[in-house]
């Protein structure tokens, strides 16, 4: 799960397995990753005290809900989580407070938030590790989004945008530049593709774009697109398939009756906590999301994390209230007993 850089920006510190700082936590991702590799003393933990957490409360709740971050009530719990003594942890905090006050951090950090740090506080903590989440290289494109060949010439009819391309970010990826490569170059390459189709080149010449698509019916359609919107095409028939012999309909197996007006307790919901049988409670409604797992835009793990549980808080952080009625009304099988639906 990709941790937002804002966590470090709000003042988080990163400690190794011995409870020591080893880098400037505000450095770029590639720098922090490099310092982790050089240290070799993981696992590494990103930690926010209560003051730092308050500035990014929504993210912390979201990560706790996803099971990738923990909230601990006191420094002794944090020390136990890391595997060091409380006195060692306080010593690390004392040293951090000292360099923050004198602005002389040996790791080069210049900005400090949440000072002072003390074990007499509550914390959010998460294990962090280097991970490849973006590749800087990719297809060479020109300012129009056209792909460039080895000789430096545009490849006729081939345009690209997004992470498949290279050279947009320079040395280090910036989050805002992702909008540049996706949105800006998406529009540019789309316009360029449109211009190419209506450019006037022959549909049968070297600049034609040929596309073959196999439809669900089995029919293969081939089209060649060239200038002036010229299109030539052909289609091959679908392979013949013998019709199955008619048979008497099988009796439907007995199943648990589910009605949107039925009431369930949280104990009832808790019994359905697997990928093959997954219920969640949301704002007083009970949802059977088993068949929806593969369709969930956020991935099935986002739902399975709350299998058999009440997911209201996490749901409300991320969704509009009408999203279930709009996109998955069939998942609603009832309401929580004694709790009216809030949707």
From TrEMBL:
Entry-linked InterPro entries: Cyt_B5-like_heme/steroid-bd (IPR001199), Cyt_B5-like_heme/steroid_sf (IPR036400), Cyt_B5_heme-BS (IPR018506), FAD-dep_OxRdtase_2_FAD-bd (IPR003953), FAD-oxidoreductase_2 (IPR050315), FAD/NAD-bd_sf (IPR036188), Succ_DH/fumarate_Rdtase_cat_sf (IPR027477)
Presence of keyword NAD: no
Keyword Flavoprotein annotated: yes
Keywords: Flavoprotein, Heme, Iron, Metal-binding, Oxidoreductase
Cytochrome b5 heme-binding domain segment(s): 261-337
Superkingdom, natural source: Eukaryota
One Pfam family in the UniProt entry: Cyt-b5
PANTHER family cross-referenced by the UniProt entry: FUMARATE REDUCTASE
Protein family according to the UniProt entry: Belongs to the cytochrome b5 family.
Protein name: Cytochrome b5 heme-binding domain-containing protein
Organism of derivation: Coccolithus braarudii
């Amino acid at each position: 799960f990709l941790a937002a850089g804002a966590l470090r920006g709000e003042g988080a510190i990163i400690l190794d397995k011995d409870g020591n700082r080893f880098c400037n936590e505000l450095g770029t991702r590639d720098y922090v990753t490099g310092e982790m590799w050089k240290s070799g003393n993981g696992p590494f933990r990103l930690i926010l005290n209560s003051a730092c957490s308050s500035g990014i409360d929504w993210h912390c709740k979201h990560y706790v809900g996803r099971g990738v971050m923990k909230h601990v009530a006191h420094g002794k719990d944090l020390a136990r989580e890391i595997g060091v003594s409380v006195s060692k942890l306080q010593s690390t905090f004392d040293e951090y407070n000292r360099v923050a006050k004198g602005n002389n951090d040996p790791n080069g950090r210049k900005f400090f938030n949440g000072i002072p740090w003390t074990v007499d506080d509550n914390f959010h903590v998460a294990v962090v590790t280097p991970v490849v989440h973006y590749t800087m290289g990719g297809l060479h494109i020109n300012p129009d989004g056209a792909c460039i060949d080895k000789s430096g010439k545009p490849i006729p009819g081939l345009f690209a945008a997004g992470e498949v391309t290279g050279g947009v970010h320079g040395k280090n990826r910036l989050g805002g530049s992702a909008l540049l490569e996706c949105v800006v170059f998406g529009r540019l390459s789309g316009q360029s593709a449109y211009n190419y189709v209506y450019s006037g080149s022959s549909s049968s010449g070297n600049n034609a774009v040929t596309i073959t698509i196999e439809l669900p019916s089995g029919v293969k359609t081939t089209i060649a697109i060239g200038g002036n919107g010229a299109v030539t095409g052909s289609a091959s028939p679908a392979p013949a398939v013998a019709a199955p012999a008619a048979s008497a309909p099988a009796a439907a197996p007995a199943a648990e009756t589910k009605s949107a007006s039925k009431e369930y307790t949280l104990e009832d919901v808790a019994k359905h906590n697997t990928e093959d049988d997954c219920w969640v409670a949301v704002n007083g409604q009970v949802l059977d999301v088993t068949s929806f797992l593969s369709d969930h835009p956020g991935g099935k793990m986002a739902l399975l994390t709350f299998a058999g549980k009440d997911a209201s808080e996490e749901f409300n952080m991320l969704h509009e209230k009408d999203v279930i009625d709009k996109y998955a009304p069939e998942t609603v099988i009832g309401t929580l007993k004694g709790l009216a639906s809030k949707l």
